[in-house]
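User: I'm designing a mutation panel for cytokinin dehydrogenase and want to avoid disrupting the core. Could you give me a predicted structure to guide residue selection? Please restate the sequence first so the numbering is unambiguous.

Assistant: Good idea. Sequence first, for numbering, then the predicted structure tokens:
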Amino acid sequence: MAPKLLLTFVIYRLISTVGLTLDPTDLLRLEVDGHLSVDPSDVKTASVDFGMMNRAEPLAVLHPSSAEDVARLVGAAYGSAHGLSVSARGHGHSINGQAQTSSGVVIEMSASKGVRQWGLPRVSEQSRYVDAWGGELWIDVLKTTLEHGLAPKSWTDYLYLSVGGTLSNAGISGQAFNHGPQISNVYELDVVTGKGELLTCSEEQNSELFHAVLGGLGQFGIITRARIGLEPAPQRVRWIRVLYSNFSTFTKDQEYLISLHGQPPNQKFDYVEGFVIVDEGLINNWRSSFFSPRNPVKISSFGTNGGVLYCLEVTKNYHESTADTIDQDVEALLKRLDFIPSSVFTTDLPYVDFLDRVHKAELKLRSKGLWDVPHPWLNLFVPRSRIADFDEGVFKGILGNKTSGPILIYPMNKNKWDDRTSVVTPEEDVFYLVALLRSALDSGDEAQSLEYLSNQNRQILRFCDDAGIKVKQYLPHYTTQEDWVDHFGDDKWTLFSKRKMDFDPRRILATGQRIFKPMAASSW
Ligand code: FAD
């Protein structure tokens, strides 16, 4: 269909569905350079996400070719009488429909359709930054920067996520203790606000918008460009895992390692994570491609009598020119830790392979049909002072000895997070991420069912509430405004609401987050 005819069709569909009273000729004047689609396959893709627990069909899908396209569409939605909603979709890796809408348009930000005018990420070697399109996947950012011998400093465990999507949350991994989350490593953004204005913002320019958008859950604008800080790229990674049977020794060592963030590079690790092993299957699970399948690790061999084990995971980056000192540096650091002596597992691999490790696991799961299944994930920030109570109540209590997926646990330093951004973290200098990354399977085993796992998530949240453990959800999901107010706390909620009034007064953006009631209420 010719682009203008298709656009007319889309507009009439919008008019009949949400009663849009905007003069259609105004929308026709949009002259979108990209592609506005009602193709069923586009609509279907935008209706689902990685969580596979929510479905909402948009009226149309925009594949923008530029930031101006995004601004044109949002501007038109802002001008519509009934509040047509607009949701940016990065790579659809949300769990609870956060990038969906049923009464508006989804903007497919990821670059796969090839209609964009924006080129590859652009690197400034001299100033050590990269300018990336908001829908760029981190894997593509990495590939481009590596051509210049540079790489971003702070990561997520998985790289097939979009720049705009992770910056709307925080973007965390084992480097966060040292460099802060990804939102602490951004110099500048181009943002289309809910009024359809395309603005550049940074610490110095439009700073309120800059801080609002970082960790802003897509509520204040659509990120079309991010300028991200870079460092010289390491060539290789020494990747080490050690085991603990005692939780307080495990957390003491993790906290010690993150306290070294101010030390010279050779006196600290570059990445500190960890995970909980509550059953035998897990140590060799999909995130643990680290251990050779021909030589699986046996929990029983560590004398835990069926109890919970904790695995500390650390890495040291290096350049081939410094390879001769890496053994010494690693050994000196490991000597200060208190893990089970016989439990040191080491591997060595190229930097890219380490960063891209979860993709390998994805391919394995896809080949077994275990990727496109419901994911009732729960991510919590737990204050340091209560992490032992969480261990007793959840890892050793609620979870029993079955988990259905990896459980990550690692601490972060709050001083690496900027309070002016929109993200919410516990009120303590150190807090832990606990990520219950579970997959629901239709296997006949009740303990693997979606209902069972979802109930268990609710039980965990109730336990924290009853025990007064002031957790904050990461990648938060609530369905009532009361819960959102509780999540943000009074002061931050006041700021968050004011920012909404300033930057998206008609509440048209990212309605799938269910924070503010949209004008077209059916989009919840
Ligand atoms: P989407 O899910 O498409 O969007 C998320 C939200 O951001 C939506 O509200 C959307 O409207 C909004 N949004 C999207 N693009 C933009 C934009 N350009 N401008 C403004 N708003 C926008 N997170 C971590 O921090 N660390 C991890 O290690 C990590 N590992 C993961 C591993 C896997 C396998 C998966 C599935 C997720 C993981 N995540 C991790 C979570 C991830 O950060 C979130 O799913 C996040 O939403 C990014 O996904 P996305 O780019 O697909 O965004």
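For picking mutation sites, this is relevant: Residues 236-473 form a domain with the Vanillyl-alcohol Oxidase; Chain A, domain 3 fold (CATH 3.40.462.10). Residues 109 and 343 are 44 Å apart (CA to CA).
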